[in-house]
Each structure stands twice: as C-alpha cells, then as structure tokens.
Specification:
203 residues
Length: 203
Amino acid sequence: TEKLKKNKSEAIPYFKQSLEYINKVLETDPDSIETKSNKAVTIGKLGDHQGSLELCEELLQKESNNIIILTNKALALTDLGRKEEAIKYGYDRILALDKDDKTARERKGRLLVSLGNYKKAISDCFDPLLDGSKYDLNFLHLKAESLRKDTQNENAIITYDKILRIDSNDTAALNDKGLSFMNLEQYQEAINDFDKLIELNPN
C-alpha cells in the first residue's frame, strides 16, 4: 500500500504536465471529444473525481455509446464511492454494447465483491469470464475469493485446487485454501496447506 501511494505521488508531476498540454490543445480545438476525454482521465488521476465525472457526463451527451468515456465515468463514480452507480451507469451500459468486454466484466465483478454481492459477482462476471478463459488464474482467483467470502468453502477449495493444478506453487491459492479448510474446521488439511506455504515462502 505504501509503495502504491509512493508511485501515485511520483506520478502527480507527470499528470500536471499532461493537463497543461491538454488545456493548450483545447484552446485551439475546444470541441475535441478525444482531448476532453483525456482531460477527464487526467484530472481524475489528480484527484478531481467529481470534475472528471462531470466532464464525462458532458461528453456522453454527444457520444452516449462511447465505451472509453463510459469506462472513465465508471472509474470516476468508483473513486467517489458510488459503486452501485458505477455498475449501473458504467459497466452495465458497456456490457450492453459489448458483452465480450472482459475489462468491464472484471471491474463490475470486483465492485460486486466489494459490495458483498458474491453470488452475483460469480454468476454475472467470473463464470462468464471463465467460460472463455477457463485456465485464467486471475479469474479463477476472483471466483475462489468470492466463494470463500460467501461461505461456500467446499466450492472455494475445488476452485483453489484448479489453480494449484495449473501452478502448484501459487502461494495465494495455498493460503486461501488453508483458510477455507479452517472455516470448515478441517484443521489438519489447513495445516498441510500452510506447511507447504511455509516451505515455498519461509519469510
């Protein structure tokens, strides 16, 4: 987390410089939707999420089906803590335009998980993603995490086993599989996973 904060802090001068350039471009071409869209992203990166949202709303009045702008709107709503609106007015609209948009589906799933709606995250997002990429470790982890948080520990373990068949040294899967066994009070199985985890990562 500290590293992420540092990286964001170090990027601020870059985004400020970018914003100066964007504003100069808009002086000569004030109606450029692409440039305004870039501005929405940039001011969002600088922390002006409300301003980013308002600019996206303005642009969507002209191009209501622009997936890039809809994505930026969803990101701004998420940063403002308005997660349900990000799903409804951002990612759901994107998926209505392009049901195969994996990024939108994954982000929607992550928001549903953060809202505690694990079953919907699995049925609407992670299972459809896995239909097309059943060996994708990222999607398998997202599904397994949702199952575990939804207290579907047996199914979570099955999913973690799928991950470990692909990568037997996946430490996150070993750790979370052990936690699932603990939730089921199957302590010896949990210890077995934690012992292997310690072997792989003694620190």
